């Protein structure tokens, strides 16, 4: 299917990129991407994926917008406080790019519904701040053969990883940490959410278009205070109950 004149102008900076071009932009338009968590990471990721022309963006989040979200969740405005996040996000993404279809679901993912949730999508992004949810999404992605882009952040540090089969996220986090910190408890630099969420969107776009080398099997760790980043390779855990052989 060819692009309209309006789409050619909209995606012009992608179309002239050698690594994307017309074929890559077509792949973006044909893609279906699920974003679990429309918060600090999901919000900027959703904005950039919609702007990039991803054909279908699924949003799953049961929360409503609160005033404290606005320090980092740039998809929302003051008038959205009290609205369901997926409802407000869907409206904002449609206004940004009417060529994108948003599938907004105000539900929380858990071990019971995760596999059904990921089944209709080509790629899954997890931006939640709950380890139980992350593990449930990971297990569902491994079972369904879906690639997972996972992001996390707290205080001044963030991380992004891409998981496709082995190693999986459970290899990185075998058990829920008993002293797991949350942004609510320890705080987070608002702009850091934009950095990590944008990295998640970038990894998704690279995966969908085949451009460059993704973080598959690796974890990128960014220290905003020191302005330093490092990438570590993740080993597969042979005893992993999710992906282990």
Protein model, in words:
The protein is α/β, with parallel strands linked by helices and 245 residues long. 37% of the residues lie in helices and 19% in strands. It contains 10 helices and 8 strands. The chain has an 8-stranded mixed sheet with strand order 3-2-1-4-5-6-7-8, with helices on both faces. Helix 4 runs parallel beside helix 5 and helix 4 crosses helix 10. It is globular, with a radius of gyration of 17 Å. The model has no long low-confidence stretch (mean pLDDT 96).
Q: Show unreliable segments.
A: none
| Alpha plus pi helix count | 10
Summarize the helix and strand pattern as letters. Answer: HHHEHEHEHEHEEHHHEE
CATH architecture: 3-Layer(aba) Sandwich
CATH superfamily: NAD(P)-binding Rossmann-like Domain
Which fold does the CATH topology refer to?
A: Rossmann fold
Provide a quick synopsis of the model:
The protein has 245 residues and is of the alpha/beta class. The protein has helices at 5-10, 12-15, 21-30, 42-52, 85-96, 114-118, 131-144, 169-172, 183-186, 190-209, and strands spanning 32-36, 56-60, 101-105, 123-126, 147-154, 157-163, 218-223, 228-233. It has an eight-stranded mixed sheet, with helices on both faces.
